[in-house]
Amino acid sequence: MFRTSFLVCLLLLQSLAAQAADKVIFAANWLAQPEHGGFYQALADGTYAKYGLDVTILPGGPQKNNRLLLAAGKVDFYMGDNIIGQFSALAEDIPIVTLAAIFQKDPLIFMSHPGAGFDRFEDLPKAKAFVGLATLTTVWPWMEKKWGFSRKNVAPYNFNSAPFIADKASIQQGYVTSEPFAIARDGGFKPNVFLLADHGFETYSTTIETRRDFLEKNPDVARRFVEASILGWVHYLHGDNAAANAAIKAQNPDIDDAQIAFSIAQMKAFGIVESGDALTKGIGAIDLARVQRHYAEMVEAGAAAKGLDVAKGLDLRFVNHGLGLDGK
Fold first, then answer.
1. Sheet with 154-156, edge to edge strand ranges
2. From 124's CA, which of 51, 93, 101, 223 has a CA 20 to 30 Å away?
């Protein structure tokens, strides 16, 4: 009888604990992939649950604009592409706030064919450039201003690398974690890879955004989500990530183990997550002075509105505290 009563009480406590967890919807900016691994890790290994959160990750995709769901109050948090999106929100008076930046370096790259006269970054401005529309309106103006690239050399990039593979005198945008893998597989050669972050492009990437009203009403939920996500990334990069990778493949069957291994290796090799301030202040770190410097460059390039107080778009209470540094 005592054992039965004990089990009943235990189950009741577990049920109450589950009911007490705060339900959170986190909208991603693309399909599930290793570049989102830390969030899936925190879900798979119970870190979110330990922080009293019942998290649903809503994947993005080519036909989705999940950021609109955040602005409309349909989701609680959003995975921002880069900090430039925060500049746009401020300019349009959209009450979105950036809480953390998981990627210290934006993974955006340009690739060239080896031995074709484009083996240095300084050689790239003279090449035909396959560029996506989003990059053309945000990053390309900075490339023109700082490095002398020209819009007359631009050809549309529609996520098909066949034109680049066929044209040795061309360059193509991509992400350091994915496109070089695809080019090696489909094109049969290893491209030159130039990470824009290593050539002065200072934006943060894979940010955690929320609405200002949600933050004001639920600061502790926001804190717990940011901190659990940071630990999820520590565990994903330095621990057993098999369950997270299984969850990613379940949501996106186009991802395989070889792609996952490549993406993780590239994130580590290029310091996408762990470099800069993240080395001393922890994953997710944001430096206001760096944001202001990047904003000034975007304004100078004509890619951001003038006169914005970028500090109003940031809330740094939950980062820069060294969380997770002792867990590597």
1. 154-156, 128-131, 170-175, 108-112, 192-195
2. 101
Helix (H, G, I), strand (E, B) or coil at 59: coil
List the one residue out of 61, 42, 38, 60 whose CA is nearest residue 51. 42
Of 109, 126, 106, 107, nearest to 118 by C-alpha is 126
Rounded mean pLDDT for each run of 10 residues along the chain, 328 residues in total: 45 51 97 98 98 97 90 96 95 97 98 98 98 95 97 95 98 98 96 98 98 98 98 98 98 96 98 98 98 97 96 98 89
Helices (H), the chain: 2-20, 37-44, 47-50, 66-71, 84-91, 133-147, 162-166, 179-187, 212-217, 219-238, 242-251, 257-269, 278-281, 288-300
Place of tokens 């500090």: 311
What is the spatial distance between Cα 30 and Cα 79, in angstroms, rounded to a whole number? 9
> Beta 53-58 vs 22-27: how paired, if at all?
parallel
Predicted pLDDT of residue 19 = 57
The per-residue pLDDT for 20 is 84
What pLDDT score was predicted for residue 16?
A: 42
How far apart CA 303 and CA 88 sit, in angstroms, is 10
pTM: 0.92
Per-residue confidence (pLDDT) for residue 3, from 0 to 100: 45
Beta-strand pair 128-131/170-175: parallel
The H helix count followed by the E strand count for the chain is: 14, 10
Residues 290 and 105: their CA atoms lie apart, in Å, by: 12
Residues contacting residue 31 through CB under 8 Å, at least 6 positions apart: 59, 60, 61, 251, 252, 254
Whole-angstrom distance, CA of residue 80 vs CA of residue 129: 25
pLDDT value of residue 4 = 47
